[in-house]
Amino acid sequence: MLKPSTAKVMKSHLRFHLVPESGPIRLDEIGQEQVQAFVGKLAKGRSRHTILNVLGTLASVLKMARRWGYAVAGFTQSDLVIPCSKPAKPGRFFTAEQMRSILALASEPWHTIFAIAAMTGLRPGDVLGLSIDDLDFEQRLIFVRRSAWLQASNLAKEHAECGNGAYAWAAGRSVDKLPSVVASQ
To answer: Which of 55, 57, 65, 173 is least surrounded by CB atoms within 10 angstroms?
Structure first.
């Protein structure tokens, strides 16, 4: 079963990219040549990352159709020519002084949420998915086991992909000891 966030993204790929670009085409007509032409259309104004994500959705649709017994052509992503991305924009961030100002104005529970995010670099959903059981006070570790997304709790990306999702705990560090640059989401 798909995570709600994955399902939402796939629906968006279908609605805004795959269906409008493909028009009335049979699944057995979607081959390497058609997909390469599709990539060419997508490349105008979209990043490599977006193109790869849309192709992943297309591959999933074709795979599911094949499982359901439909005659499906297919494509090999490694044989496609996918344009390189433009250089990424520099990340936005808060300075340590800006972070101190935010924390000074924030009331609970926001103060704690913002402080954890600033001191660990966790994404907002990962911070909101934390519970008291995720804190190891002796080893000063935070275990990211789930992530909150639109009021639902899911397995966190790091936990699902890379193991235990343990983060060094910044407990005991004051905001004055924050690095000069604190990442923001």
So the answer is: 173
